[in-house]
Amino acid sequence: MNANNQAMKKIFLILFAGCLLSNSAYAQDPEFSQSYAIPLYLNPAFTGTGTAQRVGMNFRDQWPNIPGTFTDYSVSYDRNIIDSADGIGILANRDIAGQAALTTTNISLLYAHQFHVKSFTLSIGVQGTFHQKTVDWSKLTFGSMIDPTRGFVYNTNEAPPRTSIAVPDFSAGLLGYGKHYFVGFAMDHLTQPDESFVTGSSPLPLKYTVNAGGMIEVGNFVLSPTILYVRQQDMVLKEFDGYIITKHITGGIGYRYNDAMIFRLGYSSKLFRIGYSYDYTVSALTNNTGGTHEASLAILLHYKSAKLKKVSGINIPAF
Fold this sequence. Notes:
2 helices, disordered N terminus, 319 residues, 17 strands, 7% helix, Porin
C-alpha cells in the first residue's frame, strides 16, 4: 500500500469514528446498482411476483481503491403460495464498512398480497426486519492518537457505552404493473429505530423509494427504460437506466445523477440468471475510487403444481 492510500485510510477512519461518536449522525442504507436483481430490497411488494421461486445472491464492492470503504452481501428467497394471491419471502443483508469496523446485518421476513383488475395487478407488501449494528473500536483511529511528528503512536481513551445495537424495523410498499409497465413506491424504517452507540439518539431516517419502467417490444428484443428515485434524510439518488433484452442476454447502461455511469451485462436461462455491473464514478472522486463492482446470481425453482398461480408474473429487467 502506498503512502497516499495509507493517508486516505487514516482520514477515512477518523471521519468514520467522528460520525459514530456524533449524537446527530444519521445512517444511510446501501444502494445496489442491479436494482431488479434484488427486487425484495427495492420494495417488499415485489415478494412472490416472479413466475418461479427465486433464490438470489448479490455482492457489491464499492470504491475498492479506497481502503476501508463499503462491501455488501445479500441473500434472498421468495415465492408465490400456489393457488393464492399471496407471496412470502426472506431477505438477509450485511454491510461492512471501515475494514469491518462497522457491520450492519438485516434479516427480514416479507409478505405481499396481489389484487387483480383485468390486466392490472396491484401488490401490497410489508416487511419486518431484525436490524443489528456492531462496531469494532479497535479498528478505529482518533485525533487523540496523533503525535504531531510521529503520527499515530498513542492509545485512545475513547470508549463507547456499547458496541452492538439490535432493534426491530419495518417497511411497506406498493407495486402496480401490467404486461408492459410497472411502477412502485416503498417506505423503509417506518418506526425510525434508534441506533445510537452513545448518549442521545440517532434514529434511522425514513427512506422513500420510487421506481418505474416500461417494456417496449421491438422485433426480437425488448427495450426497457427505467427510473429510480430514492430520498433518505439529506441523501437523494436519481437514476435513469436503459436496458436491451434478448432471449438470453441483457445489456444496460444507466446514469446516477452526480455520481456514476452504470454498465450492466447479464445472461438468463430457464434455471438461472447471472449478472455483472460496473459503476464508473463521475464525481470529484473519479481518479481515486476504482469504481464499484457488483455481481448477482438468481436460481429459479419452477413450481411443480399443475394449478395456475393467481399471481401474474411481473415483467421487469433481470439485472
